Amino acid sequence: MTVLTTAEPSADTMSTDGSGPVLLTVEEAARRLRIGRTTCFRLVMSGEIESVTVGRLRRIPVDALPAYVAKLRRPAVAA
């Protein structure tokens, strides 16, 4: 029987109060938004979802996800 485990967030990406990670991988962000990894990468690379670079790694701040969803919920301004 194969047991799948999820990797624990490392201490350097945890919030100071220990409530959870401050930065997410693109894959983690995609899972939270319930979208595909490729779609999430496309949104990050287009700038629609805020991201930061840590060395050679691309990470998404946890608070960038609610900001992206709020952007989607705003009514479109008529031209």
Category by helix and strand content: alpha+beta
Uncertain regions spanning at least 5 consecutive residues:
2-9
Strand order of the largest sheet: 1-3-2
How many helices? The count is: 3
Using only CA atoms, what is the Rg?
15 Å
Note the overall shape. globular
**End-to-end gap:** 58 Å
Overview of this protein structure:
With 79 residues, this protein is of the alpha+beta class. Helix content is 35%, strand content 13%. The chain has a three-stranded antiparallel sheet. A hairpin with a 2-residue loop joins strand 2 (52-54) and strand 3. It is globular and about 35 Å long.
Question: Can you summarize this structure?
Answer:
By secondary structure, the protein is an alpha+beta fold.
Keywords:
single chain; 79 residues; alpha+beta; disordered N terminus
Secondary structure blueprint with pairings:
Elements lengths: L22 E2 L1 H8 L3 H10 L5 E3 L2 E5 L2 H10 L6
Antiparallel strand pairs: 1-3, 2-3
